[in-house]
User: Fold these one by one.
Assistant:
Number 1:
Amino acid sequence: DAGVTQSPTHLIKTRGQQVTLRCSPKSGHDTVSWYQQALGQGPQFIFQYYEEEERQRGNFPDRFSGHQFPNYSSELNVNALLLGDSALYLCASSPAGGTTDTQYFGPGTRLTVL
Amino acid sequence: GNSVTQMEGPVTLSEEAFLTINCTYTATGYPSLFWYVQYPGEGLQLLLKATKADDKGSNKGFEATYRKETTSFHLEKGSVQVSDSAVYFCALRLMNRDDKIIFGKGTRLHILP
């Protein structure tokens, strides 16, 4: 079992560009959550996907959007990048019928905006 | 609002020392409480949890007790090892339909051999 995987590991973009991050959940998991972890801070909840729909959303602007595919994998898209979007982006998955008590986190994608 | 406050790091200890990392929370309702650990280059791992007042979560020698009267969930370990060096996050989840986890800022722990 590969666990939660994320790609790419690192990414460098410039202001105004768009970026797509990818996540494959742990086998048997159908719910995917995304978090932003700025340097020296705790993770902040962005949104959660279940059954290909956004189920919950944190306090992030519409520049942050996502998608979930029929195989439960997910993408996080960020448009019009700002310097402040530089962070570690974490994906977490949880099993069908589970709660966030049983979330498993991936290693993250480190995004640097120049 | 709902929030978690934990002691700032870094915390530096010698091997076999006693560890306490303080955590307090503010929440409407009755949260579940967690400690997560982030080892260098790895993702967040759930270390332990407690779902109601006076519950004690434990794992790998770490313990934390859910104290409703002091709204605290302090992490303790009797004898730390070099391999415990990591960043530790206290977190809460409200026991309602809200499925997100609210994290503290994290405490970096360095254990010296």
Number 2:
Amino acid sequence: NAGVTQTPKFQVLKTGQSMTLQCAQDMNHEYMSWYRQDPGMGLRLIHYSVGAGITDQGEVPNGYNVSRSTTEDFPLRLLSAAPSQTSVYFCASSYGQDDGTEAFFGQGTRLTVV
Amino acid sequence: SQQGEEDPQALSIQEGENATMNCSYKTSINNLQWYRQNSGRGLVHLILIRSNEREKHSGRLRVTLDTSKKSSSLLITASRAADTASYFCATGGSNDYKLSFGAGTTVTVRA
């Protein structure tokens, strides 16, 4: 199994540009989420989804948009990139069990906004 | 705001020694998980402990959970160079699947 696949691995954007970070999982997981990781701050939740057609905001949603049209895919859109969005982005998925299950992470997308 | 805080921020030990790191959190939890991140890579799940459990083992890993103190510890025994990584605790709440991560402990194992 491929697990969680993120593309691209690296991206440089100019301020104001838009782009979509792709995330796909092949484990039939209900729950998917996007995090950003900044130095010294751990991972912060941007958006999450508990199933196809259902999304919700996390801790730091401003400037980002998501949709979940299929179980497998959960793209993250940057609407108008800003230097503050320079970060490493991780997508994760899990079965979404009530008493907790492990999350599987992609390898990350390193985004630089200039 | 982040739920978990790891302590220490960084740890340097000799190969063969044990490594202990702690995680404190603020609100009640359903479960607590530990993840490892090697440099430039994604996070890998290590172990999950539920709120009604006090201790769990997995190979060289031992995790404890004290819900009265809102804290957890991760012990890595007989460390190896391959254990060099950042370690994160993540807390899961009731009735949702969201995980809240701490800032992590960076562990360096010297050969």
